[in-house]
């Protein structure tokens, strides 16, 4: 029964990632790539995406088919954070 619960949880996280998290993350990436700073709400959003991705990684660790997607999501967030940090350092105050 645990396998069924994990499958349902994975599906729910995947749906949330595809419908809500990834589109907003891509919008944020475009903004930081354009040199803008993260707002407080964007920062909080990214924290939620990271938490979801960590939960998802834990659930898919024994399901290799999901590993590339989990890695891509974490790489996207890493890229956003790195660029946002650069933007903070480039713009005083």
Please characterize this protein's 3D structure.
This protein is about 85% helix and about 0% strand. The chain has one domain (about 1-90). The termini are far apart. It has helices at about 1-35, 40-60, 65-90. It is mainly alpha-helical and about 90 residues long. It contains three helices and no strands.
Provide mean pLDDT, rounded. Answer: 85
The whole-angstrom Rg is 15 Å
The string of secondary-structure elements, in order, is: HHH
Number of strands: 0
- Extract low-pLDDT stretches: none
In short:
With 93 residues, the chain is an all-alpha fold. The chain has helices at 2-33, 40-60, 67-90.
What descriptive keywords fit this protein?
about 0% strand; about 90 residues; mainly alpha
Task: Map the helices and strands.
Elements lengths: L1 H32 L6 H21 L6 H24 L3
